[in-house]
Amino acid sequence: MLTLATIRRVLPAHRVACAAVSMRYLTSHPSTLPKYDDQIYITRTRELLQETRPSLPRFAVQGEKIKPILSPSEFYSEMKDQIRKAQRSITLAALYLGHNETDLVTSLSEALRTRPGLKLNLLLDSLRGTRDSGKGSSASLLYPLVKAYPNQVRISMYHTPDLSGVLKRVMPPRFNEGIGLMHMKVYAFDDTLIMSGANMSHDYFTDRQDRYITFQNRDITEYYSDLVSTVSSFSYSLNDKGNNFSLDMTHGVPDPVKDSKRFKKHANRTMKSFLEKWSKVQQSPKDPSHDTTLYPLIQMGPFGIRQEELVTLSMLDHLLHTNDHEEPAKLYITSGYFNFEKRYSQAIINSKLADVCLIAASPEANGFFNSAGISKFIPPAYTLIEKRFFDDANAAGNAERIKIEEYLRKGWTYHAKGSPNFGYRSIVRDLEAQLFLVTSNLGLRKCLHEELMSLRQYAYPVTEETFKSPDRQVPIWVGGASRAIRTML
């Protein structure tokens, strides 16, 4: 759910999570600022979001019903617990399900067996979800659920329309995923929502640090469940074909590979109808306990839907370039991958009015570190991109205002964010879901501050000396390659 953007006073939430739930937050340590000053920030932030066009849905909720989860194991435990308790519906969306996650599938199967009225809607990316590791795929692992509970289970696989024709035929598995993916992370159980940046696989449940925020609220849970259902409506369905499964489009829906232009038009119409319906939800606080406002954000570049991008640019401008604060704002942004889209980078680099701290994975905490084949050069590519940003910030005279920290924890990788990563592909190629949260609840703000401190516990400052280290020397050819493929990272 989430890139994390945290500000000292207010808090935009997940990248709806969910490069925080790509959740994005503006948060503040409750003891650092005067209450009046806080309220000015909160009011102005809400006004900016109200001005967004087309209108964003607005949900007024109780801050005490929102809690961060701090570790992968707690996240997995919470998911298992919610599966056991769900009575009506379970909605899950992620890039993929690990091929060896039999325990999770067993938990889902047991819940479906013991509660015949329970419905499961699960959405994955088709390219990633059907990639066979040699030990099976997400699709093959989930197929028994479709076979055993045909009236309760819906498994969907989204396929990007931008991978079709000759490109579809010539690009090999894994590399073709750079063209576009279903990258949303949504975990909904009856009236409980978890927004995260985590996928459903062993490392995300054990030693891959991410972000995870729980929301106990029926309305916001219903929104994201409906979002997943809507995307599922123009995705392949995993169907039982006797001794095997097939992936089929619903009758009347254009195939994204065979008829990509018509598919894009259909998906655009479907998503615009979804957004129009939910834009009518404009909740105001029912009483003082409803002290937190949630604004869901969607980014679907292939279909011309760019809510998250517009709000991000607007908020960066407000926080980094508007001189209406008594003291500089403090902005924290976290992503597993240091690869900001150009406009985001320039907005940060040229800021003179805020202190910014960027948290990303060190090369050793990158999931591609020491991987086989050409992908082992992906961490050096990110190092090079980070070095260029570092140099540009210094050249702009912002060496003191803009800091970079790298997460390094022995045996762990770092993926803390929401759905998007702030990069070009998040904006243009992938399907992303985020959440912007504004709160005056002191307890919630304290919890979010503690979450930030938990992430920074293993983060170390990046300096000039960092890039002089022998293990940070990047082969010359990686420089050219990184520029060529940057839009696919």
From TrEMBL:
Enzyme category, top tier: transferase
Cell location: Mitochondrion
GO CC annotation, single: mitochondrion
EC number(s) on file: 2.7.8.5
Keyword field: ATP-binding, Lipid biosynthesis, Lipid metabolism, Mitochondrion, Nucleotide-binding, Phospholipid biosynthesis, Phospholipid metabolism, Repeat, Transferase
Domain of life of the source: Eukaryota
Pathway: Phospholipid metabolism; phosphatidylglycerol biosynthesis; phosphatidylglycerol from CDP-diacylglycerol: step 1/2
Residue stretches making up the PLD phosphodiesterase domain: 178-204
Catalytic activity: a CDP-1,2-diacyl-sn-glycerol + sn-glycerol 3-phosphate = a 1,2-diacyl-sn-glycero-3-phospho-(1'-sn-glycero-3'-phosphate) + CMP + H(+)
GO biological process, one term: cardiolipin biosynthetic process
Entry GO MF terms: ATP binding; CDP-diacylglycerol-glycerol-3-phosphate 3-phosphatidyltransferase activity
Entry-linked PANTHER family: CDP-DIACYLGLYCEROL--GLYCEROL-3-PHOSPHATE 3-PHOSPHATIDYLTRANSFERASE, MITOCHONDRIAL, CDP-DIACYLGLYCEROL--SERINE O-PHOSPHATIDYLTRANSFERASE
Family as reported in the entry's similarity comment: Belongs to the CDP-alcohol phosphatidyltransferase class-II family.
Described function: Functions in the biosynthesis of the anionic phospholipids phosphatidylglycerol and cardiolipin.
Protein name: CDP-diacylglycerol--glycerol-3-phosphate 3-phosphatidyltransferase
Gene behind this protein: PGS1
